[in-house]
Amino acid sequence: MAEAATFQPGTGAAPATLVELSVACRKLIDADVFSKSDPMCVLFIQDGRKAWKEFGRTEIVWNNLNPDFVHKFVMQYYFEQSQKLKFEIYDVDSASADLKKHDFLGRFECSLGEIVSSNRLVKNLIGPKKKSGSIAITAEELSSCKEQATMQFCAHKLDKKDFFGKSDPFLTFSRSNEDGSFTIVHRTEVIKKTLNPTWKPFVIPVRSLCNGDYDRSIKIQCYDWDADGGHDFIGEFTSSLRELSRGRIEQNRYECINPKKKAKKGNKYQNSGVVELMSCQVAKVFTFLDYIRGGTRLHCTFAVDFTASNGDPKTPTSLHYLNPYRPNPYATAVRAVGDIIQDYDTDKLFPALGFGARLPPDGVVSHEFALNGNPNNPYCEGVQGVLDAYHRTLHSVQLYGPTNFAPVVNHVASFAQTSQQGADYFILLIITDGIITDMPQTTEAIVKAASLPMSIIIIGVGDADFEAMEVLDGDDVRLSSRGRYAERDIVQFVPLRDFLGRNGTDPQSVQARLAKEVLEEIPDQFLSYMQRHNVKPKPPLERRLTITSVSSLPVSQQ
């Protein structure tokens, strides 16, 4: 799906199309004793060395031998390449991510070209039994549509399906295909014990719902949820995004029809309930690149741990030891992140701070000092300038302690506080070896910073216990302080040891893998701020202005 904006004379580019793969299975093996299997599909792709690499996983469909997976696999399709794919189906038995801990139900191998050339590829699975069920894979080229729909539905007087109760209704949304079939794209939550449910608002990309075609048929079905996976069909109706986008009008009250019940009762049958659209708003979704092209600047501040737990820098066992043959862990982290971030920083000037050291001449402990020795202008020229300042600092300070993060977090937050209109976004990279000693203060600082255009990356070096860092990361539980929850997750923690010892210890290899891991959440965190604060990108810049002095940067209020 080539776009004019990607045309660059004098360069080479492989023609590619973005495709979305939908997966469904039928008649899977029942691997559970007291219930049905809980299937999940795992997709593997074959790399240049003919090795299989996991590409992604669908959601788990509980108690179901005929699952229609909502999660889609999106990938680039290259006409001139043989892209080998392997689909494996597992019965999920625990929360473990290790596939060996789950029951294997079957696999199917093919090329992406085979799927693309078929409207719908249906094949038998190869599994532990002669008849292990079948898999159906549908591929659709994705449009460049950048809109999303926010919708909410309610229903009235649905059919009672539970013998001792009412119903536990939920809705499914499916888009139509060229061959007349439908592909499920969304499920609502289940509302227990009611015939008059109101479902929560949900957001779905227009690309997923109808691939940008507002007149494409959308089938909406209502089911009564059952714990054994045999959900009872209540009724269905069809609409289109064009109709739904008209909002809460009489035409968007739909009779929920059960064809079998209607055929049986004839004229006596009216409907199985009424489903009503409460609201529908379609809005354009902007990408990370839209903001970057519109001139939003990324500013990265480096904060280095100079506490004594790192060891004497003069000894080879120290994490700060300056090995003449390879960079130490701190230099590796600075280089890995800096080499990527500098491409988005127009002035290539990076503030570099240290914490946890005694400073000359009187040995006062500081948790927020400039590595270049100039507190009024802590900016270093380029990544190499940061490394040079770091190396000089090792010879001029005394490693001490404790390990306090709050001062450097508040330092960067003070800059972010002055620039909340979308022109600037701030990244704080903290490199540390130790157990944090000001957890309450740091938690409070991060919760406050979560409402600002700011992200925090923490790279742990050495073999310390980093349990507190996982708490700050906030992936599982949203961070809170004094009853206030963080507006969004802005912290990404990565232990450097996870990247050492694999594929050798080549510094460039370590840096490349580390950079990918620590920076992968930045675009989503960036967009979460812009969307929450309704900040829209400016039109793409035709040229970039070069900042020649730090006076053009936001000024700290400290």
Concise synopsis of the structure shown:
By secondary structure, the protein is α+β, with helices and mostly antiparallel strands.
Taking all Cα atoms into account, the compactness measure Rg is 28 Å
What is the domain total for the residues? 3
Architecture of the largest domain in CATH? Answer: 3-Layer(aba) Sandwich
Mean pLDDT: 88
Instruction: Determine and state the CATH class of the largest domain.
Output: Alpha Beta
Instruction: Quote the distance from N terminus to C terminus.
Output: 49 Å
Low-confidence stretches: 1-5, 542-558
| Mass-distribution shape | elongated
How is the quaternary structure best described?
single chain
Assign the CATH topology of the largest domain.
Rossmann fold
- Report the total helices: 12
**Major sheet, described briefly?**
7 strands, mixed
Please give the number of β-strands: 28
Query: What is the assigned CATH homologous superfamily of the largest domain?
Result: von Willebrand factor, type A domain
Strand percentage: 25-35%
Sheet/helix structural class: alpha+beta
Share of helical residues: 10-25%
Topology:
Layout (H helix, E strand, L loop, with lengths): L16 E10 L12 E8 L5 E6 L15 E5 L6 E8 L11 E9 H6 L3 E4 L9 E8 L5 E10 L12 E8 L5 E6 L14 E4 H5 L6 E8 L7 E9 H4 L8 E3 L3 H7 L8 E11 L3 H6 L3 E9 L23 H13 L7 E7 L1 E3 L4 E3 L2 E2 L8 E3 H13 L3 E2 L6 H12 L6 E9 L6 H11 L4 E7 L6 H7 L6 E2 L2 E2 L5 E5 L11 H13 L2 H11 L26
Parallel strand pairs: 17-18, 17-24, 24-25, 25-28
Antiparallel strand pairs: 1-4, 1-8, 2-3, 2-5, 5-6, 7-8, 9-12, 9-16, 10-11, 10-13, 13-14, 15-16, 18-21, 18-22, 19-20, 19-23, 26-27
Helix pairs in contact: 6-7, 6-11, 8-9
